[in-house]
Specification:
This protein is of the alpha/beta class. It has one domain: NADP-dependent oxidoreductase domain (TIM Barrel, Alpha-Beta Barrel), CATH 3.20.20.100. It has eleven helices and ten strands. Helix 1 crosses helix 2. The mean pLDDT is 94.
Length: 315
């Protein structure tokens, strides 16, 4: 496993990290989830990502049970808050009240004294940015959080947060967590150039295009049982990527993977990691074997010719 700095920060995270969205605490049983986390750790994964809203805290609880056997200084733990955690008017957003309360609740569920990275799960237009940044900075001063990050913020929102932190003398955000894959490239024109200049690293989610870039889905065929496309809960999420054009792209990409004697998923992850601004690519796993395959993408370097070929396929 190779490791990269989290943006300009000194902390280093594994190029492949493990997330818990739609899996742990939900569709994946507790024992299997713990087995996945342990196998990832054995293979060099040191970065584990979750959020309070994932199955309303259940994912944090299961992840906390899985990592309790590891030395606390041996892994980097990230969580987030923004989405509703209750029906009350203050049970959502990025107000000082919600941030402090949800951070404390996350620490309790995870069974730790601090999280390495606390992230704003989305931008909150109803809360002053200064209030949000000050609340996170206070958590950093208290030792409950080591670094601050955001998820799915626009380039303008990230720039405003950086400038506000400088103006107020607060810790800057060190990371952004966007969706990024061969099939979702919206961060390339504006977000990546800004973050490269400002020292903010990308921790990308869905690097395999919700499973499209694993090759397990076939055009005109029913989705395999147990996959996200076969689930009523998640079918709509991946459905928008299951276009005729994307199926054609996947088949052409498979040719390149076969030529390199790597899996299509490994090719897709290696393509993500070609970006120096990407600190880590978050994978999901419902079986330890999936992790064993995906971590092999760390260290795979695509040639200029292969990158040009991929660019033409994705155009």
């Amino acid at each position: 496993m190779n490791y990269r700095r989290l943006g300009r920060a000194g902390v280093k995270v594994s190029e492949i990290s493990l997330g818990s969205w739609l899996t742990y605490g939900g569709s994946v049983g507790r024992d299997t989830a713990i087995a996945c986390v342990h196998r990832a750790y054995e293979l060099g994964v040191n970065f584990f990502d979750t959020a309070n809203v994932y199955d309303r805290g259940a994912a944090e609880t299961v992840l906390g049970q899985a990592i309790k056997e590891f030395p606390r200084d041996s892994y980097v733990l990230a969580t987030k808050a923004f989405w509703p955690m209750g029906d009350g008017p203050n049970d959502r957003g990025l107000s000082r009240k919600h941030i402090i309360e949800q951070c404390n609740a996350s620490l309790k569920r995870l069974g730790v004294d601090y999280v390495d990275l606390w992230q704003c799960h989305r931008y909150d237009p109803e809360t002053p940015l200064d209030e949000t940044l000050r609340a996170i900075d206070d958590l950093i001063r208290q030792g409950k959080v080591l670094y601050a990050g955001v998820s799915e913020w626009s380039a303008v929102q990230i720039a405003n947060a950086l400038h506000a932190a400088d103006r107020m003398g607060l810790d800057r955000i060190v990371s952004n967590q966007p969706q990024y894959s061969m099939l979702e490239r919206y961060i390339e024109p504006d977000i990546i150039p800004l973050c490269e200049r400002e020292g903010v690293g990308q921790i990308v989610w869905s690097p395999l295009g919700q499973g499209m870039l694993t090759g397990k889905y076939k055009q005109g065929e029913a989705a395999p049982a147990g996959t996200r496309a076969a689930s009523d809960r998640t079918a709509k999420i991946i459905g928008r990527l299951m276009t005729e054009e994307n199926f054609a792209r996947v088949e052409k990409l498979r040719t390149i993977a076969n030529r390199r004697d790597i899996s299509l998923a490994q090719l897709a992850l290696a393509w993500i990691l070609r970006q120096s601004n990407v600190s880590s690519a978050i994978i999901g796993a419902s079986r330890p074997e999936q992790i064993e395959e995906n971590v092999k993408a760390s260290g795979v370097v695509l040639t200029p010719g292969e990158l040009d070929e991929i660019t033409a396929i994705l155009a």
